[in-house]
Amino acid sequence: MKKVSLLAGSFAAALLMAGGIALGTTTSNSQSVAAVSNIRQKTDYTKRSNAYVNTKGAKGVANLRYKQGSTAYSKTYKVTAGTTKGAKWTTAFYLPLKNLTSNANPSHKNTSYFATNAPQGFTMDKSGNMYFAFSRKNSNRGKTGYLYNGYIMKVDAYAVKKLEGNKKLLTTNPNSLIKSGHVKFSNMNWAFCSGSLAWDPKTNRLKFIIAYNSPSRSYLSTHPVQMVTANPSSLKFESTAKFYLHDTVTGQYSQPNVLAFDNSGNYYTAAAASLNTSNGNAYILHQGVRKSNGTYSDRELGMTIKPILSTQEQGISIDNDRFYIGSNSAYISFSLSKYLKNAYTPSMAKSAGSWLGVETAQIAGSRESENVLSRNGVKYMAMTWPNEVIMHK
């Protein structure tokens, strides 16, 4: 589970990465960039409806009910409930189990990369390269689980294919892929801890969200969240955009912890299912429409999605027209174009199950998962404890 902490100190220390990772003061001046936009949320749909979808037997996963701590290698996973009940997922490959020392990073200096913690972010580009965001945990992680510091590990498409044929290669001989340049790392940095790591196909860049950890509405109203851009080749910072996400129904400013992009470069994020509607808690979706100058016009999408999975969402992703919301070894997906077409029509909410094209899956094991990705008909899910990527063709 992703938890958050608030560090005292400077302006930078008050920030935290989406997904519960504290952003510290180690970022150098060369990595700090000016904001390219400053967007205040203006919602034009103030009366929410609840898109109650027919889950066809998919059971939700309650918070804190998933398993942790096991290091045993897993077998084939079965879908136990949902529209794809009976489908099989298999292990694509296992992530490193031991710390790694490598200079395959922008500084070209040997750095010790910890591999014993679970990935907090998982995304893939259109070429099939995978990116994982790892985070440290405090020494008392058994009590708090607070996360800090981190890095991005890039596993290119060649390495992914190689690993699918030798699933334990990153655990038994990771240097074979690292020294050949097929596995690379960012420099160690607080900011790379983000659980909102996402690929933007419009700009061909990695992006992630930084949000403030503060319950104060007045504080959040003057401290925007930030969207950071990183170069996928060099794994260095490039730019930062600032914007506000304001919920007019509750009067609260949102602190998003998930991120996804469609093919046009529009971004999507979602507030965790803790905001009430007339039909119970719901996921509140935001869309940032990309402008020609690279900035975004943000809006809260009117129709909310009932949280059949859990109140703790772990990640969202988009594969062409499919929108995925994942939470603890389960997911729901639906047609993005149909959702956008009807999002502002309250009367369509009651029949959402018939026109959304819903797909759901509850995967056996009830383990924590970080995100579900789909590319070219193949689905991938990052699972924790043991850290692995599973797949379904």
From TrEMBL:
Highest rank taxon of the organism: Bacteria
Organism this protein belongs to: Lacticaseibacillus pabuli
Signal peptide residue numbers: 1-24
Name of the molecule in the record: Extracellular protein
Keywords (A to Z) from UniProt: Signal
